[in-house]
Write a structure and sequence with these properties.
2 copies of one chain form a homodimer.
Chain A lengths: L1 E4 L4 E8 L5 E8 L3 E6 L5 E9 L4 E5 L2 E3 L6 H13 L1 E13 L8 E12 L10 E7 H9 L6 H12 L1 H7 L2
Parallel strand pairs in A: 4-9
Antiparallel strand pairs in A: 1-2, 2-3, 4-7, 5-6, 5-10, 8-9
Helix pairs in contact in A: 2-3
């Protein structure tokens, strides 16, 4: 049963049958899913953003990301958000991981894309997005994670996952 | 303005002033915050859980975790969830990272704790929690992350962060 609907998420209450046979009624947040994009200018330089997040009243260091629009293909979302938020088109997009963001309360699944063969276009922000892109070496970004300077979960996860798989990445970037 | 309230989260709509002076009205999910716990039996053996997640209809491999109760101290939440979900008391709890789970739509901040000097007690599940603890080597868990077998964001992040800081961890475990 849908009890609230907004552009980015709905709230629903449904009955679920558990593996132990019991039934539980749970309220939860339905979300269409999202993408996060790690844009590589070369083997070691990435593009990140400083983004103002109104609901927590903070600037966060993040990778560009966004919600899948109704009926949109994943790769289209990745390509669209990359261009809107940082002003680049990707010649190559590769999905390297999918994960649930908060599976106790929200259905959102997020897909991590590597974006390479970048070509400069122009940022196209929505009226209420406050986003400043910047270039940084992957190793320097990892140091920010280790020092607790990056507070956005998807960005910490993405940086550490990519760094862990870096040898593969060098291969992927060919 | 609160438009929905449940045990784990509320939905609110508020006006926010942006750094560019504009005002935006946003619906969002208010969440009290949560903890995730990485329990170490020794320098290389951790305890994880298989948990059934009704709202996505899947079993996920996770670290124990849970929502902060009203007015509860963070460390109490960590200690309580560890005992309830895996049946261990921690002699030592250390917070090593805090991060936002989905800062575009939800206020939830999550705190990662290392739990060491473990002492066996008994699992105390709530009626509708379906959770099976198991022991695994940290390196084997990291391999599950690399192979895409772990789909829970907080768990991927926690495993990679701990593994990245492993030398420090060995020191912390003394």
């Amino acid at each position: 049963m849908k009890i609230y609907s907004s552009r980015k998420f709905d709230v629903e209450i449904n009955n679920f049958t558990l593996p132990n046979g019991k039934t539980v009624e749970k309220p939860y947040v339905r979300h269409r899913g999202s993408v996060v994009i790690a844009p590589f200018l070369d083997n070691e330089t990435i593009i990140m953003i400083r983004q103002y997040r109104p609901i927590i009243g903070k600037w966060l260091i993040e990778f560009p990301a966004g919600t899948i629009e109704e009926g949109e293909q994943l790769e289209t979302t990745a390509s669209r958000e990359l261009e809107e938020e940082v002003g680049y088109k990707a010649g190559k997009l590769q999905k390297i991981l999918s994960f649930y963001v908060s599976p106790g309360v929200m259905t959102e699944v997020m897909h991590l894309y590597l974006a390479t063969k970048l070509e400069k276009t122009a940022q196209k922000l929505e009226e209420y997005e406050v986003i400043e892109p910047f270039e940084i070496k992957l190793n320097d970004a990892i140091r920010l994670v280790e020092d607790g300077k990056i507070e956005d979960g998807k960005t910490i996860l993405s940086l550490l996952f990519i760094s862990r798989k870096y040898r593969d990445l060098l291969f992927l970037l060919q």
